[in-house]
Amino acid sequence: MKKLWLGTVLVGVIALSAACSNSMQGHDMSNMHTKKETTSNKENLPLANDTEALSGKEIHLTAKETLLQINDQVKLPVYTYNGSVPGAQIRVKQGERVKIVFKNELPEPTAIHWHGYPVSNDQDGVPGVTMDAIKPGETFTYEFTATIPGTYWYHSHQKSAEQVDKGLYGTLIVEPKEGEQVDRDYTLVLDEWMSQQQASTTEQSNHTNMHHGNSSMMHDMSMYDIFTINGKSGQAIEPLKVKKGEKVRLRLINAGYMSHKLHLHGHSFKIVATDGQPLNDPQPIKDELLNIAPGERYDIEFIADNPGEWLLECHGDMKGTDGMKVNIQYEGQTNKTDKTNAKETLPIVDITTYGKYKTGPFTLDQTYDVEYTMDLGTAMDKNGMVFTINGKTYPNTAPINVKKGDIVKVKLVNSSPMDVHPMHLHGHFFQVLSKNGKPVTGSPLIKDSLNINPGEEYVVAFQADNPGNWMFHCHDLHHASAGMVTELKYKDYKSSYTPDPNDTTNKGE
């Protein structure tokens, strides 16, 4: 199974190709407006689908099972936060102290990881590394200060290849103190699901055969035949309403395991942020594809200056591609409806050359305290294919050992012959310095998730400014569960958490 979100709106081992997604169910938010500060003091669009928006000093989340109606033919048993996929959106202001009271009503242990957000290590939500898994019926309280604005998400980090695939994810939006300077603000979560076994499914939640976590399935990405946006597919996806002259922000989040190439019809747009971090002087682009890898987020903005009905759609030729598209409708307009062009060949935005160049926090020629090369590969063992870092699988991979304050450079090389590896670092942002030996020529590129195609090489840098033991892993979570994980370990960090060697419930991969 797999998932996506359309609220304040926009989300393989052997074959990882381009795709697209959406999902929701639970609370009826059709009459709710989320008030936001904008240049025109307009209200935000009501939340689409049924995902609730949560704010305030104390937020309550509950993980539980339910059924998700993806389209008019397919209903799937899923895991949810607060009864919807994507789960409730947490929306807070920069500077606020966030307290999330989380209860587990699932039939198995779980935990929440705050993807992209530099929380303190004890709040990172990785069982066996930062905490014990939260058992069925138990409650755990997460707390952190929302210091850095941007688009983030949260998801299970317990048996994550299975639990995230069942829908266990939501979105986290941190608004800047001055408010968002837009008229409409949509969050769109992309995902993929399998329908083969579900077509004859009754109301029973037989999860065992419903997700791609089965070892017999895990390498066959073609089984994902339904792509969603906010947990819905095709005609079930609610349109995005706009008015002529408005500035519209789309927050695109990929919660799935495939990359998705999106095309915005009829409008030029700017990429204003990636992984929540702003880009310098973004320029308008049109009729180019935005490739969004697993774990990545892109915020784009456009001016609604072309009345009619247009599409934001996924390009590709996989079976589920046609379901990953959403209509953009101008209110009060009756112009002819836009037509799909998902097979058209269009250029893909090169984010390493996009925006205006300026010197970022780090440079290629400066002195680094720690340098680490990460060779991403594949191998075979007695259980089949595994995914390796420098020839080893976790927990036998060599960690990146640092002290607080160290400046760290990491070279990431994808030596896998066919597999794409979207690498995600917990607890830190890194700057992308070069791609295939060529320095980044666009805006300083600050990210926490980086997509690396076969044969590609990137150099990234960051400061070790958040003490702890942090995961650095592939966000095709099947690859992570099959070994492609290492740790960033602070030599001078003393954790208050000691894993119980007899507790077999901690499966933090």
Automatic annotation (TrEMBL):
Gene3D superfamilies: Cupredoxins - blue copper proteins. It holds the Pfam family Cu-oxidase_3. Its EC number is 1.-.-.-. Keywords: Copper, Metal-binding, Oxidoreductase, Signal. Residues 66-178, 214-328, 383-491 form the Plastocyanin-like domain. Residues 1-26 form the signal peptide. GO terms for molecular function: copper ion binding; oxidoreductase activity. This is Multicopper oxidase mco. It comes from Anoxybacillus ayderensis.
